[in-house]
């Protein structure tokens, strides 16, 4: 099959199809024909042809046909330079964001992702000349299609890692787009958490990025409000999980500590043995403290909470395991070991070094952690 046959098929799809059955048949032929070309041959063939006819076919109401077209477009756009594709098919890509079908919206986001994977020049072009496509991607965080919103989030997190991408996403236009979503009365809590999660990954890139986000009170402040003032346990746990993402970096932990979150968490869980809601919330708190412990020694009030849960969870195996894991994370650094040694008290030594020490080792073996609770360098 020569290159002209590809152009002929595209022309037939554009001019000769009246009924959906005939169009689908031609599209099947096109899908088969593509496999017979090398990449070089496809590039040459597409140089004299246009994909606009395929974008127009996406107006079909046949889901099977839409899936077929998406596959063809994906394969054909893969051989095109991402920058050239933006310039040639910008309007069609933008319209794709308005398509009711999730796979179509995922397709156009994937094409933008190719700009990131291709070259700095393609990313710069996207961020300077085609910013409307980035804003459209931000808006896909509100999509009812979970796959589409996930693809959008991944794209944005990758984009912020480039210089031009971070300048746009954390600049006026990008921040305004996130604000619009968060401040809209139509935005559900689920969608807000998607935005918070995306922003937390932005903030993890650098202290500067996190500071820019915090200048607009878009992350730690609203999450803190949810965690400590909400009556929704699930929302509290979701908020804490997102805050925990920031705890994966030293600058993130520093920002969290400044807000007094550790003290608030200790107060919230102080009566965890008698409060059923605190018992539900406590495992998430302990996991959060454990993540902090990998980066640096958590504040005293956080360490106290881990030790308290560890010593008083003899009848709560699941909680004891989570507490042990948090303890292990803290003890995984030399500074953590020293700090835990300094925390010793008669009650701590008596319980931990007798029955509880054996339980710690047992738990740690099961979760593939090993905590050397006493050594020649550090003794509890």
Helix/strand layout:
Elements: H1 3-15, H2 20-34, H3 39-47, H4 52-57, H5 63-77, H6 82-96, H7 102-118, H8 120-129, H9 131-139, H10 146-159, H11 163-169, H12 172-183, H13 189-205, H14 207-215, H15 220-229, H16 233-246, H17 250-258, H18 261-268, H19 276-295, H20 300-312, H21 317-330, H22 334-342, H23 346-366
Helix pairs in contact: 1-2, 1-3, 2-5, 5-7, 6-7, 7-8, 7-10, 8-9, 9-12, 10-13, 13-14, 13-16, 15-16, 16-19, 18-20, 19-21, 20-21
Explain this structure to me?
The chain has 380 residues and is mainly alpha-helical. Helix content is 75%, strand content 0%. The chain has 23 helices and no strands. It has helices at residues 3-15, 20-34, 39-47, 52-57, 63-77, 82-96, 102-118, 120-129, 131-139, 146-159, 163-169, 172-183, 189-205, 207-215, 220-229, 233-246, 250-258, 261-268, 276-295, 300-312, 317-330, 334-342, 346-366. Helix 19 (276-295) runs parallel beside helix 21. It is elongated. The termini are far apart. Mean pLDDT is 86; it is low at 362-380.
How would you briefly describe this protein structure?
The chain is an all-alpha fold and 380 residues long. Helices cover 75% and strands 0% of the residues.
* Element pattern in H and E: HHHHHHHHHHHHHHHHHHHHHHH
Number of strands: 0
State mean pLDDT (0 to 100 scale).
86
**Which geometry do the CA atoms define?**
elongated
Helix residue percentage: over 70%
- Beta fraction: under 5%
């Amino acid at each position: 099959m020569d290159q002209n046959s590809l152009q002929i098929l595209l022309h037939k799809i554009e001019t000769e199809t009246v009924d959906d059955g005939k169009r689908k048949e031609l599209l099947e032929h096109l899908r088969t024909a593509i496999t017979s070309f090398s990449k070089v041959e496809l590039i040459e063939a597409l140089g004299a042809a246009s994909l606009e006819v395929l974008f127009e076919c996406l107006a079909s109401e046949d889901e099977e046909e839409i899936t077929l077209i998406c596959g063809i477009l994906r394969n054909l756009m893969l051989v095109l330079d991402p920058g050239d594709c933006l310039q040639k098919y910008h309007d069609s890509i933008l319209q794709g964001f308005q398509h009711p079908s999730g796979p179509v919206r995922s397709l156009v986001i994937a094409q933008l992702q190719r700009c990131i994977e291709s070259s700095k020049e393609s990313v710069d072009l996207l961020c300077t000349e085609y910013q409307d496509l980035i804003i459209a991607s931000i808006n896909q965080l509100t999509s009812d299609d979970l796959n589409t919103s996930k693809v959008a989030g991944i794209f944005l997190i990758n984009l912020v890692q480039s210089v031009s991408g971070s300048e746009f996403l954390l600049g006026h236009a990008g921040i305004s787009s996130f604000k619009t979503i968060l401040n809209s009365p139509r935005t559900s809590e689920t969608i807000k958490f998607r935005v918070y999660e995306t922003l937390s990954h932005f903030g993890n890139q650098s202290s500067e990025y996190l500071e820019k986000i915090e200048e607009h009170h878009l992350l730690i402040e609203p999450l803190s409000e949810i965690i400590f003032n909400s009556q929704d346990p699930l929302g509290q746990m979701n908020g804490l999980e997102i805050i925990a993402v920031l705890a994966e970096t030293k600058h993130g932990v520093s920002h969290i500590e400044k807000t007094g979150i550790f003290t608030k968490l200790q107060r919230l869980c102080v009566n965890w043995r008698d409060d059923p809601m605190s018992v539900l919330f406590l495992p998430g708190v302990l996991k959060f403290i454990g993540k902090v412990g990998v980066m640096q020694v958590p504040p005293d009030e956080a360490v106290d909470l881990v030790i308290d849960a560890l010593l008083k969870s003899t009848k709560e195996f699941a909680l004891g395991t989570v507490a042990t894991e948090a303890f292990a994370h803290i003890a995984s650094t030399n500074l953590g070991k020293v700090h835990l040694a300094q925390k010793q008290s008669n009650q701590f030594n008596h319980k931990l070094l007798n029955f509880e020490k054996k339980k710690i080792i047992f738990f740690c073996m099961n979760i593939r952690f090993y905590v050397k609770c006493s050594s020649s360098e550090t003794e509890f």
